[in-house]
Amino acid sequence: xxxxxxxxxxxxxxxxxxxxxxxxxxxxxxxxxxxxxxxxxxxxxxxxxxxxxxxxxxxxxxxxxxxxxxxxxxxxxxxxxxxxxxxxxxxxxxxxxxxxxxxxxxxxxxxxxxxxxxxxxxxxxxxxxxxxxxxxxxxxxxxxxxxxxxxxxxxxxxxxxxxxxxxxxxxxxxxxxxxxxxxxxxxxxxxxxxxxxxxxxxxxxxxxxxxxxxxxxxxxxxxxxxxxxxxxxxxxxxxxxxxxxxxxxxxxxxxxxxxxxxxxxxxxxxxxxxxxxxxxxxxxxxxxxxxxxxxxxxxxxxxxxxxxxxxxxxxxxxxxxxxxxxxxxxxxxxxxxxxxxxxxxxxxxxxxxxxxxxxxxxxxxxxxxxxxxxxxxxxxxxxxxxxxxxxxxxxxxxxxxxxxxxxxxxxxxxxxxxxxxxxxxxx
Length: 427
Hints:
Blueprint: H1 2-27, H2 29-35, H3 39-42, H4 51-54, E1 63-69, H5 72-87, E2 91-97, H6 100-106, E3 114-117, H7 123-133, E4 137-140, H8 147-155, E5 159-165, H9 169-177, H10 179-186, E6 191-194, H11 197-206, E7 212-215, E8 241-248, H12 253-266, E9 270-276, H13 282-292, E10 297-298, E11 310-312, H14 319-324, E12 328-331, H15 344-348, E13 352-355, H16 363-372, E14 375-377, H17 381-393, H18 395-411, H19 415-425
Parallel strand pairs: 1-2, 1-4, 2-3, 4-5, 5-6, 6-7, 8-9, 8-12, 9-11, 10-11, 12-13, 13-14
Helix pairs in contact: 1-2, 5-6, 5-19, 7-8, 9-10, 12-17
């Protein structure tokens, strides 16, 4: 039955790819740029290194782990795990990623022995990938549930261990509704190192009790948050108040711009950094600002000229630096029903955190911050504006919230060690 479901899935995937790709290439310049980036890797046309290039020169038999991440956030979270595993010796690490930005970021991680874009999730391609990599363990990070990938690992008798496994309430409802399909593949996962007890329970139901569950906590708490950016680098003065809205999703731009416009009337020293989750949203943001008559600067041009008070972050990889010099941070994807983004990074820099009511993807993390007093959940745009003004008028409360946010992050550390130990036990 599973083989039949996989066949149907593969046929639909191929049809979708063949139909959608020509239109996307024709009408989307962004898709064209991404599609042409290392396209051969999507079809497993790899120049895979020989064993001599990846195995340590020791008597320890090398074990190979194939990690798979979606985007740059998961790669950054797993980076300390790679280092911890490699430091013990005897392990070779292969990493596949979905996005171009994650691929570029991972190129600079010395602990990875081979990096590639994730192949199309079609069984013949996945089977070829396993034949080339020959992993001892397949370790998808978070919610990377790909039917052909999981089934190929199962057929090849490769252990599957989900690291930082998470399934949000919304995703769980979807998978459960179509459990006749998804359970066939999720049940291939032998061990789930779950982010929370709730995530573990979701995997247990969907795998029909076939997956072992170990609740390790969220490895994202264990990242090294060591950015120490100089405020002068951003043309900031001592009296400036820095408010950063990070990972803003489509549909939230106008709300955040409205909040800035109203708050800046009372606080002209407000510096506002708006960082969209996807750079494709840049033109939309520029259009809204132009319509409202709000002058702005691009982050990429800050070193070239005196910046305005509104800065659009138009480059990747700088949000951590910006959080580190901020006074207050808003976490995007939460004013609208997108599940929210990760609030840990801002909190780890002792920043007061604001987010909307839609934090399903980071429910445990958001709850920890709220209970610690390091975050405030806002109901809508007007409530966000109200909370920003309240915190601006009470710097003592703002400072205390930042301290509590940091303590909440500190208490959750230790997941990385548990995950590394679990992976080593399974080799």
